[in-house]
Each structure stands twice: as structure tokens, then as C-alpha cells.
Amino acid sequence: MTTATSVRETKQILLVEDDEDSRRALTNVLEDEGFSVAAVGSCEAALDYLRESPQPKLIVLDLLMQGMKGWEFRDAQKRDPALAGIPVVSVSAAGKLVHVDVALQKPLDYDELVKAVERYVPRQRERGSDHRAGDRSPSQ
Amino acid sequence: MALIAADASGLPFKALDSALIDALPVAVYVCDRDARIIGFNRRAVELWGREPSPDERFCGSLRMLHADGSVLPHDECPMADVLRTGEAVRDAAIIVERPDGSRLSVSVAIVPLTDASGQVTGAINTFQDVVELARADEADRKRADAQAGTALRESDQQLRRATASLEEAVRAHETFLSTAAHELRNPVNALQLQLVALLRATQQGEETVPREWARERVGQAVEAVRRLVRLVETLLDVSRIAAGRLELEAEPMDFGQAVHAVVNRFHDQLKEHQLTTRVAPTPGTWDRLRVEQVVTNLLSNAIKYGEGLPIEILLEGDDRTVCLTVKDHGIGIEPAHQDRLFERFERAVTRPQYGGFGLGLWITRQIVHAMEGHIAVESRPGEGSTFRVTLPRQPIRMAAYAKEVARS
Questions:
Q1: Do the Cβ atoms of B353 and A41 come within 8 Å?
Q2: Which residues, other chains included, contact B120 with Cβ-Cβ below 8 Å and sequence gap of 6+?
Q3: Which pLDDT tens digits describe chain B residue by residue (408 residues)?
Q4: DSSP-assigned letter for residue A37
Q5: Contacts of B196 in chain A (CB under 8 A)
Q6: Rounded CA separation A24/B118 (Å)
Q7: DSSP code of B36?
Q8: Sign of dihedral through CA atoms B252, B254, B258, B261?
Q9: How far apart are CA B339 and CA B173, in angstroms?
């Protein structure tokens, strides 16, 4: 997981998700699809990240988390003029209750997720190309 | 009226006419100051579905349950309260289970007996099953209507109380269902995304799927499935407990071996902790799987909240009891949270990494109670927690229950 303190390079997507399994799966999928991702485990960490790091093009946000909830994060984000313009895709059953740009529900549909992200973020790489190749072991 | 050892009790009760007591339409029994059942009438035997043996204490039913279906240990029942406090109890609502598995909701009233100096020498318990209570109320009401309507008001209150407790139970179930759905959704979400990613990769025919890439995704999918299995097991336990069907299979076993088996299973997670075990061979009669479950729950909590610091497991015992101690030096528990720790859905801390239903300690306590034991916690915030489970080596009711179930 990329933490707020260690990241200074520009990531396209900030993923805010407290569940470790979901966070890893979402990070994998988004990176496979050619996007760069910074992942944090709470809304508090997300706000820290946004204040300290280059702005992402999109925030992918779980709403039902321990501690600060996604909708409280959304309020804080909208009150901060520097952050208010960043679009948000929510990934939670409660998405319809909060004003976000796209509301998706868990379990997420792979294509719906990618389609929603594509609306706001251009791919850095060809879909799946050099990322998977980069994982290739030397013997192959 | 069956009188057991009434002469030794010194209670005024023996003076009562036993034929009259037997003729009463309510169940009556008497305990001495040590909670031994020294007398009971015919109606009590009908409601218990059995006759208690001379050594039995607190209540003659095989099992008692709270109104929510969770096990009520005999030594925590209203009779135990009255003997301890010397204060009478009225309208206590509990469930008694008969050997044939049938259950009755009963309303209990208990009066303490005291000697000239005010010392509690025993207590008289009268109880009725609530179906019969309702019937009696109907007859009462006709009389009461003509008189003051007291019975009507009382039964009204009973109904309102019953409704309130039902509503509370329904709310608890709704909360539980939505918690469960939320908890299940995350591993399902991870599993689905990882599997679809793998499927997509194999469908892009022109390239081979890199081994490391695939291994990571399969590994994470397997992890998600394991988590789903654990959550489903927990759900099943909750429904078994709520239905009073936490079945125990008693067998001769070594508690020490069970502790070692669980510790071995946690080998990987314990790498970063320094684990000290002082575990002596401790033979007894318990349900092996449930004993392992208790150890698993306590050890996984110690790992979860132990902040990577040393963990100690101690198993000691005498001829009658065994005591398991699991101690960590982690975040500890605020005093205000310690009492509620064993309740349903209680988790003293809410941190994202501490996933689950928050039911582990509740289930643990239910299992420990079913095995006639106790669980307690000592903790200081920032210094860690010590959980201590004490179990009888040969739980009497567990063996008796198994026997009676086999007979029926």
C-alpha cells in the first residue's frame, strides 16, 4: 500500500478503502488497466494525502468505513476549494445517498468500474501492457 | 411434595403440608443456602421435564436460556441472585429447556428465606410457564373486571414488556443482518475482481499470463475465500446459539494438546510476536472442536490487538478445574468497555484493520458457559489484556445432557 507520507510522485487515482482485501483487488485492477494508483485505508489518511501530494484526477471512495465516513470526507472535500473539483466515484451500497459523480456498488462489476474511471482519467499505459510484462520473471 | 434432606436444612418449609404443595397449579421448589435443591412439587417436575438429582443446584431444568436464546448459566440464574443478595425477584422471564428439547418461557418469582438474624438460609422459587400465565390471567380478568381491573393492567404491562423485548430482539437481528451483509460484501468484492482479472488475462490470447502476476491474484482470491469461510462459520455459530442448538460433543481429551494444535496453526502470524507457552498436559472431558475454538478466538485477539509484542499462554489446573490464560501486551481495553466486551457486536476499538463481526468474544463466552465455565478479562489501556477461562474438567450438565439427549 502506498502511504500518504511516502508519496510525492503524481498518481492519477486516490483510492480510499479500509478493507484490505478490497483495497488490494481494486489497486490491482486499476493498475492492470493502466492507471496509476495511490491507496489509503481511511478518510483521515486521504485528507492528509490530498494536502501533501500532487492532486489526483479522481478519487475512488468507499463510503462505509470505520472512523470518518465517506460522506463526511465528501463534505470536507467540498468545503476545501483546492479539493472540491476532484471528481469522486463511490464504491459502496450507500452511494446513492451521497452526491458523487458516479455511484457503484459492491461487489463491483469489473467493466463498470473501468468505464467509470475512464470518464475522468486518461490511461498512462496501454491496457495491461507493460504492467504485466514488468512482473515477468527473468526466466521467461 | 418431594422433600430431599429437608430435616438437615433447618428451614420452616418442612412444616408445610406436602400434599397441598403438590396440588398447587404453579411450580414450586426450595433451595438451601448453598443453592442445593431440597424440595420441589409435582408441577415443577412437569415443567422441568425431569426430576433433579440430590446434588443439583439452582434449578432443576437441564438448561436455562435468556429470553434472547443465549445460554443462562445455572449459577447466574435468578435463584443465584436471590441467594447472593437476599432480595426477592418478581416477574423474571427465562426459558427452560426440557430433556426432550422442548422449551417453555417461564415467569419466575423468588422469595428469600432468612433466619432470626436476617441471614439468608435459602429461597422459595415459584414459576409458571407464560402460556399458562396467560390462561390464568383470562380467568382473573373476569373477576378483576368486576372488581378493580388490576389483573388486566398487570397483563397489559406483561404484554407491553413482552412486545418491547420482542421489538428489541427484532432490531438486534436487523442490525446483525446489515452488519453481516456489509462484512460479507468485501471479500466477495475482492474475490470477484481478482477472478475477473484472471479471466480477462487468459482471454487475451496473444500473450502468456506471467506466473508471478497470476500467483498474486490467485493468492488474494484464496485469502478472500478463507475470510468468507470464517465469516460464514461465525454466522452459523450465531444462529446455532440463538436457537439454543450449540451442540457439544464431550469426549476425553487433553486440553494441552488442543492449545498446541491451535498455536501451530497460527505459526505464520506468531512470527513477529514472542510467544511464551507454559502448557501442562491436562486431561478432561470436553468438546474438542469447541475448546480449540475458544483458544483460537483468544489467541487471534491477542495477535490482532497485541501490537506485535510478546504473548503468553498459560494452562494450569487442579483435579477439578482447568484454567487457560492468554495475555498480550498490546493496546488494552478501556475499563468502560470491559463489561460490554462479551456482548454481541461489541468491539472496544474501531480500527479499520480489526475486521469481522465483533462476535468472537460473545461466541467464546457462550461456548465457555455451555461447558459450565467462566471467562474474565483484566486489562489496562496501553498495557495489554489478560483473558482467563476456567472450565470444570468433567462438566456435569454437559455429560448429563449428552446422556439424556441420547436416551430421548
A1: yes
A2: B33, B83, B86, B112, B113, B114
A3: 444 444 444 444 444 466 777 778 889 999 999 999 988 988 899 899 898 888 889 999 988 988 877 889 998 999 999 999 999 998 888 988 888 888 888 889 999 998 888 889 999 999 988 765 455 556 665 665 666 666 667 778 888 888 888 887 777 777 777 777 778 888 999 999 999 999 988 887 656 788 899 999 999 999 999 889 888 888 888 888 877 778 788 888 999 999 999 999 998 888 888 899 999 999 998 999 999 999 999 999 999 889 889 999 999 988 899 999 999 999 988 888 887 778 765 544 444 344 566 678 888 999 999 888 999 999 999 999 999 999 999 876 665 555 555 555
A4: E
A5: 110
A6: 67
A7: B
A8: negative
A9: 22
Nearest CA in chain A to B228: A21
Across the A:B interface, residue pairs with CB atoms under 8 Å apart total 94
Q: How far is CA B303 from CA B223, B298, B300, B328, B390, in A?
A: 18, 9, 5, 8, 21
B397: which DSSP letter?
H
DSSP assignment letter at B57: B
> For strand B63-65 and strand B71-72, is the pairing parallel, antiparallel, or unpaired?
antiparallel
Could B192 and A110 be called an inter-chain contact, meaning their C-beta atoms sit closer than 8 Å?
yes
Nearest CA-CA distance, residue B180 and chain A, Å? 13
The answer, for A129 touching chain B at a CB cutoff of 8 Å, is no
| pTM of the shown model | 0.57
Asked whether the beta carbons of residue B188 and residue A20 sit closer than 8 angstroms, the reply is no
Contacts A113 to B, Cβ<8 Å? 193
